[in-house]
Design brief:
Layout (H helix, E strand, L loop, with lengths): L3 H10 L1 H31 L2 H9 L5 H25 L3 H39 L7 E4 L2 E8 L4 E4 L5 E3 L1
Antiparallel strand pairs: 1-2, 2-3, 3-4
């Protein structure tokens, strides 16, 4: 049988710490959202994606990625501070950090799975100048005119004015 009096005494003794920990988490959520929106607006204002697109010929939504990353880092920090307030710091912090690192590696792997080969193929196309804007090509049964060649994709338009992105 479970003795709830021990649990009740533990909660009564640590109620102020629990309230502070919950407050830290709530404040952390508010701050994370504020920081995320602020970073997003600043990056939009300085036109980061267009700078990267023009200089590196890469179309990446960097504003979204960086602002989301800042939001989740702030979430993690507030969770870590809340747990340390309760007294669960070292072990739980390490477990959470390992879980986040594993999830990050898995996500990066799945994202880069297609990005890597496409980037290498695009770089080879640019270096060897195998395909240029205006060329008429046939790829995968698609016959059309090349209208744009980037590092990550090539746009082809056929006679029916259908746009294909390879």
């Amino acid at each position: 049988m479970v003795d709830f009096t021990i649990l009740a005494n533990l909660i009564n003794e640590n109620s102020s710490k629990i309230i502070i920990a919950v407050s830290i988490i709530l404040i952390g959520v508010v701050i994370a959202r504020f920081i995320s929106k602020l970073i997003y607006k600043v990056l939009i204002r300085i036109n980061l994606s267009n700078i990267i697109k023009n200089n590196l010929n890469l179309a990446l939504p960097l504003e979204d990625v960086i602002s989301t990353l800042a939001k989740y880092i702030t979430y993690f920090l507030s969770l870590y501070l809340a747990l340390s307030e309760i007294g669960i710091r070292v072990f739980i912090g390490k477990v959470i950090l390992v879980i986040i690192l594993v999830l990050t590696v898995v996500i990066v792997f799945f994202v880069l799975k297609d990005f890597g080969p496409n980037f290498v193929a695009g770089a080879l196309l640019h270096k060897k100048k195998l395909i240029r804007k205006g060329d008429i090509i046939e790829v995968l049964g698609i016959n059309g005119k090349v209208i744009e060649v980037k590092l990550l994709d090539t746009k082809i338009i056929n006679k029916e004015k259908e746009l294909f992105i390879l």
